[in-house]
Amino acid sequence: xxxxxxxxxxxxxxxxxxxxxxxxxxxxGSDEPVTITYGIWAGxxxxxxxxxxxxxEKENPNITVEVxxxxxxxxxxxxxxxxxxxxxxDAFWMLAQQIQPYAAGNQLLDITDAVKNAGVDLxxxxxxxxDLYDQGDGKxxxxxxxxxxxxVWFNKALFDAAGVDYPAADxxxxxxxxxxxxxxxxxxxxWGVAAPIDYQGGYxxxxxxxxxxxxxxxxxxxxxxxxxxxxxxxxxxxLQADGSSPTLQQLSDTEAETMFEQGKVAMYWSGAYWALQLxxxxxxxxxxxxxxxxxxxxxxxxxxxxxxxxxxxxxxxxETAKFLMFASGPxxxxxQAESGAVLPAYKGTAQTWMDAMPEFKNLQVFIDAQAYxxxxxxxxxxxxWQGVQGDYLTDAxxxxxxxxxxxxxxxxxxxxxxxxG
Amino acid sequence: MTSNVSxxxxxxxxxxxxxxxxxxxALAMIAPALIGLAALYLWPFISTFIKSFMNVPVFGPGKxxxxxNYAKLLGDPGFWQAxxxxxxxxxxxxxxIPLAIVFAxxxxxxxxxxxxxxxxxxxxxxxxxxxxxxxWRFILNxxxxxxxxxxxxxxxxxxxxxxxxxxxxxxxAVVGIWMGLGVNLIILGAGLQSxxxxxxxxxxxxxxxxxxxxxxxxxxxxxxxIFFVTILxxxxxxxxxxxxxxxxxxxxxxxxxxxxxxxxxxYDAAFVQFKQGFAATIAIVLxxxxxxxTALQFRLQKKWVVYD
Lengths: 421, 308
Description:
The complex is a heterodimer. By secondary structure, chain A is of the alpha/beta class. Chain A has two domains: about 35-150 and about 305-355, 3-Layer(aba) Sandwich (D-Maltodextrin-Binding Protein, domain 2); about 150-305 and about 375-420, D-Maltodextrin-Binding Protein, domain 2. Chain A contains 20 helices and eleven strands. In chain A, the strands form three sheets. In chain A, strands 2-1-3-10-4 form a five-stranded mixed beta sheet, with helices on both faces. Chain A starts with a helix and ends with a helix. Chain B has one domain: MetI-like fold, CATH 1.10.3720. Chain B is built from 14 helices and two strands, in the order H-H-E-E-H-H-H-H-H-H-H-H-H-H-H-H. The longest helix of chain B has about 35 residues, at about 20-50. The two termini of chain B are about 50 Å apart.
């Protein structure tokens, strides 16, 4: 009798453990309460993400979405450890430059079928962003959440104080350099522009504007040491050389965006994702305006966006897929747009985003920039080769080596990473 | 049953079965701790050791590549620079120990409110290192920092303490000393209290002054505590990572390239470069270095540490 009880208990326990290990496919469609987590990095977007989670819960009363916020510096290391250890969030934000190791390592939920079955039309999203995340394996791992292009944020008060005309829409590199020089006033502690080593908001744009490329067309080698690309890098090192920007040391102590908010630099190259932060600075708000990037040999800006992706180890793949489609869908896009947090990827929501910040009259430049945008170069393990930019480019920015030599050394380093696959 | 297992054929039987049985009992009793230890310390160590000979992608299985990782690490000038930075930092932080002895002796003299002083010194220890690093980052900011403002009042031009590689290690050390002072103070304070007061009374009868007492009584009798604190400080200094990470702010910091410590290299390899095998190699090499330094300290202690 006694032994039988034990055997029965063991059997129950075994079944229970097996059930816990397998994916609960049987639960699909049932009203079992389910909780999924949504990992994001902290910033101005959090309230909008919480609102999206709430809206999703209202539509799906049996699913609870927990928004998990991580500070940006720890986001990727935590995610990596979580994915390797089986504790990553069910759904989370992904960047194009980070996706490769996750996709190659089979850590992402394949939502190809879920998206097809739900009738989601990929044409509603910018093709450029979808392409950025395409791993060439025929699988869809996520849907675009937002997209960004770059422009020049500028401080009208500093332009007025220096008696400099606001940028014209068709300004050139020459115009930009002149403007930056004229705005610089060492006595007042004001610089024309911030010129940090920034790939997405900075030197990638000028590399393309100069007719160069960061990575060659076949994606296998670096092209950052071509004469055109070097021109694009020189654009920034020249700004450092003629004192139009705070030094790299100053920009290390106080980040470029903060300098701009403090009225220390008059122009700041960056994306639409700063709009809300600048808008929320009520003191600065009336002085902020935005102009298209200046034109080099041609007009260009790099373009990217965040995608919502799922974790392959989720216990609730169906609910997670459902949430991913919702979080990148029209209703979530509307919530994002209305909050002003970021320019949603979903088609036709740009106007709502612009209307959220009525005092910023020229936000249209970010949307118009799509016409001349190029996808952010994210070949191979992009986070790895982008992560070492400082090791190779710092000397050029500080003026102790030439842009050409720095680009050459950096190209070798990139090639090494690309060769590793 | 147990006695059968522990008495294999060919071995002389124990006089009674009791001894064998006690062995098994003892093992069973410490099993939870032993298993925990094995799972949490031994296995990760073994796994790291194995990985250090492999090329391991972030996800999925790795491939053995012999001693490639070690050759690459030892041939990398960046590693030697990081080792130099780490060693310099360690030496600087060890200078905090004399400071801690002085403070411990001073607190000992205080007749009332000893606890308050101890709490004040201990506060940085229980504060989040990230928060501490952030605050110091603001204080040391080249353009708007408090330190440079104070320096400017007395006419000294400030520097970019956390953005100029000539100063960063010293900046880390100042914060490191400040953060470690509390723990050292508690240990040394306890050491001071255990010195019998009769020794001081007797020596003052013999005409010894305060300074003589300090060098002839306090220091020798405190030396076991000092040794202990030195070992702890050295090990934790070799493992320093958080201050680099927080005080240099971002990967765009121009001083970062020349300010990396060994553990920062590890972080860089594991989480930025996605090279887990190489990261494991760094961890193993660091372990060897720390073990060597600690062994050396144990040898040298015979020359200066006094045990009754």
